[in-house]
Design brief:
The chain has about 900 residues and is α+β, with helices and mostly antiparallel strands. Helix content is about 20%, strand content about 30%. The chain has 17 helices and 47 strands. Strands 20, 21, 25, 26, 27, 28, 31, 32, 33 and 34 form a ten-stranded mixed beta sheet that branches. Strands 2, 4, 5, 6, 7 and 8 form a six-stranded mixed beta sheet that branches. Strand 40 and strand 41 form a beta hairpin. Helix 7 packs antiparallel against helix 10 (about 630-650), helix 12 crosses helix 14 and helix 14 (about 730-740) packs antiparallel against helix 15. The longest helix is centred in the middle third of the chain and has 24 residues, at about 550-575.
Length: about 900
């Protein structure tokens, strides 16, 4: 037997949660021991309670390998371990890894949906949180107990008044009419022989609280409901099952108002669990179990606490708290004052000229849309008890600052703790370099994603908190380096497919309030945009290439094909008016130009400076002209990208006929784009930075014109004073395109630019997260738009792939083979990045001393790397650490 270490990092599917695995045949993964060049076989031992069984397979695969045993049944506890065989022989067995399946057949559920008996006059907003409860007896101590629960709304469960688990905002946001996730908890230690109480707090959540772009209420239903089953096996062998049914009772809790968008109010003078006399029989809700499902995404949790940087009293009883960091979450407040003290906590991202919290930059009116009044306000009345604290859990805020009104003082920083709340994603990637300002922006970009990873990827944690498809389409490659988003991304893609319209159109937001996906005529007119809907194809491909997960491609294949077919029909059947004016008869290539429907285009471009020195917003200065403009150059580019990507998906899945058809479609789109949008000198029709970036990044420009197109791009940047003019779609692609076309120096000059518009201008003006608008805070300190939008932060992926040089190969998913090709630039003297890949840790660190360049690389077991030095030298790297040096080429 080899003395090599045993396999580590055992996982089932993508889920970090050991309970509630949602498939009868879960895939297994492990990381090879350090120093192993190749696995030649593996043996898996499985113990599902009916005796251990072993299964041996000759294979070098160790990521998401097929389940080797018989399909599992519901609620089955399983433990498994693995040992592998290398060229040196077999390793020792790994440690055991345990998991448990959920309820795999929805016909097995016994529970009923229950809710409070609210009358028809019950308010539509600012509704209380309901307390639902039942009592039951156990004949003996519990040997094993599992609680399964979900809700139309947000719930917290309690056993004997002890909170169950550490999940927050459960069951999360979802397309309630299609899919609703169930959560599983081990509650064995919370039960006792004899009388027990099972209860839950139930609030509006995403189901009927303020939601969507317009913050409508009752968008999925006008009554909340709770669903739960408690399965107990006692030490004496008895089985007890407690379900939600008509024997439960309901009463208003001491949380008098709870809304995810606008905040929570609580009177601490009221007991946390209402007296039995206050309860009334519950209502049996009219809901089905067919939509119930299990998710491999990590739960939303309280993941970090940060102390307040300062507390400033700006007026008697009016304090401003600065956390020093823009976050998603809430605060825990102690020292609440004497009994009856009423405190109001208002949260925001910015301070006005008087040093007070403001949210004015988050409200306002978009073209053709109603005004949305925005606020995030918690309220609490103190009971005056020693050690008393207030911490909301039925809301979430995006903020750095908190105004606390009504506190008698003194209030100190020690009384306020920021609680960071988001999906409990495992951190996988990091970057640092010799430039502290660049490191500061990098951390702001990371915090921006953290603030927008609350159950689903969102655009901002404040104003909309919506799963805009375009945002995650852009950021998914960056996010997949920073965090393990395999389960998180797959869960969101399920919502994308759930919300997809019958004609294949992908809506702007997933999950989506019914009004936001086309029921409102204004929104129907801006649905199905290039770069947004393409998330249905591009995000699954990202997850496949990063995590070697073919299943996500299989699951999303119907959604992908429906989207590309939607693009094809719209390109063929609709023409932009400018083209109709040019010729009543369409040219042959025009059936492959996607120009006749709405596209958001280069959304959030920088303001343009006119000759008189004034700045003009490209959209808001003339919204109707922007809406009507021909964006076919962009639409056709993304049509080609999705068609060519789905061709690769079909190849992976072995769909030969479909691959041939989509390959032919992509070739026709490419020919149409080149016919219409690129000239013989390599200039793109729009003659914009964004147009040239996209053309080069997507491979739209013929090879013999690439250098010329890149030169046009470089000149446009120089003409703008070494500033970018790109917006939403092209900004993440800009620096890689420059570096890959021989303009590395210009790429770094842009990256390190400090004047508007630029990335470092944000942090120079105090940003701790990335702004929605390039001018998020102007020179006078006035804010506009969201101050936490991660899309422009996608530039940090350039630091991963180019500065540090760690590059994924599409034809070797999961980093089995990869490239390390650092591109040093600027004044950087060193840079380093690390990635905890599916195969294990990858590191790249380089230093430069004058013209001497030294690179150190770590390759994980079972992987190989191609190392390309700045002077062009190439080296093959095997598992382990190695270093190389060279002289940097002269400019």
């Amino acid at each position: 037997m080899s003395s090599a270490n045993t396999p580590v990092g055992l996982r089932v599917e993508h889920g970090p949660e050991p309970l509630g695995v949602g498939t009868a045949t879960p895939r297994l993964s492990w990381i090879l021991p350090a120093g192993v060049a190749r696995q030649v076989a593996y043996t898996v031992e499985i113990d599902g309670g009916d005796g251990p069984r072993t299964f041996t397979q000759e294979s070098d695969e160790h990521v998401l390998v097929p389940w080797p045993g018989e399909p599992l049944d519901s609620r089955r506890p399983v433990r498994w371990r693995v040992r592998i065989v290398t060229a040196a022989g077999p390793t020792a067995w790994s440690d055991w890894h345990e998991f448990e399946t959920g309820v795999l057949d929805n016909a097995e559920w016994r529970a009923s949906w229950i809710g409070a008996g609210e009358g028809d006059s019950f308010p539509k907003v600012d509704r209380p949180v309901w307390h639902l409860c039942t009592t039951f007896d156990l004949p003996a101590p519990a040997r094993s107990a599992r609680l399964y629960a979900t809700a139309h709304g947000v719930y917290e469960a309690f056993l004997n008044e002890e909170r169950v688990g550490d999940r927050e905002l459960t069951p999360g946001t979802t397309s309630y009419d299609k899919t609703l996730d169930v959560q599983a908890y081990d509650v064995t230690g919370l039960l006792r022989p004899g009388a027990n109480t099972l209860s839950a707090l139930l609030s509006d959540g995403w189901y009927r609280g303020r939601n969507g772009v317009f913050q409508d209420t009752d968008i999925w239903g006008d009554r909340t409901s709770f669903f739960a089953e408690l399965h107990v096996t006692c030490e004496n062998g008895a089985s007890v099952v407690i379900t939600t049914d008509d024997g439960w009772q309901a009463a208003p809790s001491r949380i008098t108002r709870a809304d995810l968008m606008t905040g929570q109010a609580c009177d601490l003078r009221t007991p946390p669990h209402p007296d039995a006399a206050e309860h009334r029989p519950v209502r049996i809700a009219d809901a089905a179990t067919e939509t119930l499902a299990w998710s491999a995404a990590p739960a939303v949790r309280r993941v970090e606490e940060i102390g307040a940087v300062s507390v400033t009293e700006i007026a008697p009883g009016r304090h401003i708290v600065d956390l020093g960091q823009n976050i998603s979450g809430w605060v825990r407040l102690t020292g609440l004052g004497p009994a009856g003290t009423a405190l109001k906590l208002s949260h925001g991202e910015h301070l006005d000229a008087d040093g007070d919290v403001t949210t004015e930059h988050l409200g306002g009116e978009a073209p053709g849309m109603p005004t949305v009044i925005f606020h995030q306000t918690d309220e609490v009345v103190s009971a005056g008890r020693p050690g008393e604290a207030f911490e909301p859990r039925h809301t979430v805020h995006g903020f750095r600052y908190v105004r606390i009104e009504g506190h008698p003082g003194p209030l100190t920083a020690a009384d306020v703790t920021g609680v960071v709340v988001h999906s409990d994603l495992r951190r996988t990637g990091r970057f640092r370099c010799s430039d502290d300002d660049l490191n500061r922006f990098y951390e702001a970009a990371v915090w921006s994603f953290r603030g927008n990873a609350v159950d689903v990827p969102t655009d901002c944690p404040t104003r909309e908190r919506a799963g805009w498809t375009g945002d995650f389409q852009l950021y998914a490659p960056t996010a997949s380096f920073l965090y393990d988003i395999a389960g998180f991304g797959a869960r969101w893609l399920r919502a994308v497919a759930d919300e997809q319209l019958p004609d294949g159109c992908v809506v702007n937001i997933s999950p989506s309030a019914p009004a936001d996906k086309g029921a409102d005529p204004k929104l129907a007119a801006v649905t199905g945009s290039a770069g947004w809907g393409d998330a249905a194809v591009l995000v699954p491909w990202t997850l496949y290439t990063v995590y070697n997960d073919e299943q996500v491609l299989r699951d999303q294949w119907p959604s992908m094909t429906a989207w590309v077919d939607f693009q094809t029909r719209n390109a063929s059947e609709k023409r932009h008016q400018s083209r109709v004016d040019r010729s009543a008869e369409a040219a042959a290539h025009e059936q492959y130009l996607w120009d006749g429907t709405f596209h958001w285009g280069e959304w959030t471009e920088p303001k343009k400076r006119l000759d008189d020195g004034t700045w003009v917003d490209p959209v808001m200065s003339d919204p109707m002209a922007w809406f009507a403009a021909d964006k076919g150059e962009i639409g056709t580019a993304y049509f080609f990208l999705s068609a060519s990507t789905i061709t690769k998906v079909a190849d992976v899945l072995g769909k030969k006929e479909e691959a041939a058809a989509y390959r032919d479609l992509a070739a026709r789109i490419l020919d149409a784009w080149r016919t219409e949008y690129v000239s013989d000198d390599g200039k793109v029709a729009s003659h914009s930075q964004a147009g040239h970036v996209r053309a080069l990044a997507f491979g739209l420009v013929p090879e013999h014109l690439r250098a010329a197109a890149a030169q046009h791009l470089a000149q446009l940047i120089e003409d703008a004073g070494v500033h970018l003019t790109t917006g939403f779609l092209a900004t993440p692609l800009l620096l890689p395109v420059l570096a890959d076309t021989g303009h590395t120096d210009l790429a770094y000059r842009l990256l390190l630019q400090r004047t508007y518009p630029s990335w470092l201008a944000m942090t120079d003006r105090g940003a701790t997260t990335v702004w929605e608008n390039w001018e998020g805070v102007d020179e006078d300190g006035v804010a506009s738009g969201s101050l936490n939008h991660y899309s422009k932060g996608a530039v940090i992926h350039f630091l991963h792939t180019h500065t540090a040089g760690i590059r994924l190969l599409e034809d070797s998913p999961g980093y089995r083979r990869f490239v390390v090709r650092p591109v040093p630039g600027g004044d950087l003297t060193w840079a380093e990045a690390s990635l905890d890949s599916t195969c294990g840790p990858i590191t790249s660190r380089w230093e430069r001393d004058g013209d001497r360049f030294t690179l150190k690389v770590t390759v994980p077991p079972g992987s190989t790397a191609r190392v390309i030095m700045p002077d062009g030298q190439e080296h093959d790297a095997r598992p382990g650490a190695a270093s190389w040096s060279c002289e940097l080429p002269r400019p």
